[in-house]
Design brief:
Helix content: 40-55%
Protein name: ShKT domain-containing protein
Strand order of the largest sheet: 3-4-5
Oligomer: single chain
Number of domains: 1
Order of helices and strands: HHHHHHEEHHEEE
Mean pLDDT: 77
Shape: globular
Largest sheet: 3 strands, antiparallel
Radius of gyration: 20 Å
Distance between the termini: 78 Å
Organism: Rhabditophanes sp. KR3021
Length: about 170
């Protein structure tokens, strides 16, 4: 009796599963965003109305307070449609989604790493494109602030892909 050994290799691509828009806050700080607005209102408003990363990540809260910018609910879907891409390509995002950290798979598209995943792997993580189910409204972005938590581990707090080690005072 002969047995045939059949090996089946399954090649699959992990696609991210982003569920909510980025939290609407000023990631670079409200002081920095307010200074930009006060120093050059026209330039600030142009960034809010033309640059999706600036609008959603860097100065979201201040952009929404400015009378010179379009409303979040109308401009954000338009900006996403114009700039729905992965900065370094799908292969880069796929390769990095399979990394291990402390013997656990690092979920590249996890909302805890939104500051990295939205900038670098926007389409791969389904923040935009035909597979995206995210409702981009200001209300959803404000509600996302309470659900976006940072993961912690024994070495410190993980912010995106950057580890910030705890500092202990010897005083």
């Amino acid at each position: 009796m002969r047995y045939v050994l059949l090996l089946v290799f399954s090649f699959f691509t992990f696609q991210g599963n982003a569920r909510s828009p980025p939290c609407c806050r000023d990631m670079i700080g409200s002081v920095a965003c307010t200074r930009q607005y006060r120093n050059n209102r026209v330039s600030f408003s142009d960034k809010c109305n033309q640059n999706i990363e600036f609008r959603l990540l860097q100065c979201c809260s201040t952009c929404n307070k400015s009378p010179d910018t379009f409303e979040y609910d109308s401009i954000v879907p338009q900006l996403l449609a114009e700039d729905c891409q992965d900065r370094y390509g799908e292969a880069f995002c796929d390769r990095n989604s399979k990394q291990l950290y402390d013997n656990q798979r690092l979920d590249w598209c996890d909302e805890k790493r939104i500051n990295i995943s939205f900038r670098i792997c926007r389409k791969f993580c389904n923040y935009c494109g035909q597979n995206s189910t995210i409702n981009y409204t200001l209300e959803a972005a404000v509600n996302a602030c309470s659900s976006h938590k940072y993961s912690s581990n024994k070495r410190g707090v993980m912010l995106g892909m950057i580890n910030v080690l705890p500092v202990f005072s010897t005083v």
